[in-house]
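The protein record now logged underneath.
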Amino acid sequence: MTTLARLLVLDLRVIAPYRRQALITTGIVLVMLFDRPEVILPALIILSASWTASYPFQVSDKAKLETLYAVLPVTRRSLLLGRYLWSLAIFVCYSVVGMAASLVSAHVQNIAFAGPAVAEVLAISWAAFALNISIQYPLYVRFGYLRAGLLGTILPIAVAAVAVTRFHLNIRPDAMWLALIAVAGAVLFVISAAVATIIDPAKSGTARWAVT
């Protein structure tokens, strides 16, 4: 198992106290929006996946796990990249659940939802998630969850929600648009990881998250 894979497993264990909360939030979104297959996945990504992606930072700060991170045989850069890998895993998991629910919903209601519609939903959901993480994670790395938690969660969710809504209402994307959206999300993700590494206040010291 690689270092990043081990860190991914560690984050999964760290957020154990919040698994039920994540499941409840996901269930509420699915129930409330089950009759709108084209909205299920974007809503899950913005309202549930974004919160779940922040759990490792939240638990680390509240439980003061910087001592644990300090003794791990990994570099600070690996710890940061592990968090981004965690967020990608969260996106994949929620995408599978959301798309399955969307397809079932469309089938039950006899709504056409396939091909271009699926691609559009996936591309927009990915871009919204990447935008969210690109804002959220650097704030958490620089200031810690306890100081930047509210701003680092509400701000990117609001920005992503407005961007998705305006885009959906004003643009009917073709294949090129969807490809550009997906690439833009990936670029934001990479830039965010680079910025987080640069502004990390602990990069020259022990491997710990900033806490108050």
Notes: The chain is about 80% helix and 0% strand.
